[in-house]
Specification:
- The protein has 60 residues and is mostly beta strands.
- It has no helices and seven strands.
- The strands form three sheets. The protein has a three-stranded antiparallel β-sheet with strand order 3-4-5, with no helix packed on it. Strands 1-2 form a two-stranded antiparallel ribbon.
- Strand 3 and strand 4 form a beta hairpin.
Length: 60
């Protein structure tokens, strides 16, 4: 198990041992959808859906 943090709220996020580039995960704290942009070390960014960053709907 690998641990990193949410780039939006800094909550800890646990990733499986076989995390892959492009994998989508959801932060359990702020509910933003995140994309794995690097695997060594693991790094997350807000997921892009089309050309729009996918944030929680209350932020629009």
């Amino acid at each position: 198990m690998v641990e990193t943090s949410c780039p939006e709220c800094d909550a800890p996020i646990k990733l499986g041992a076989r995390v892959q580039m492009g994998q989508l995960v959801k932060c359990s704290e702020c509910e933003v959808t995140l994309e794995v942009i690097d695997t060594n070390p693991p790094e997350l960014d807000v997921a892009l859906i089309g050309n729009i960053k996918f944030r929680h709907r209350d932020e629009y």
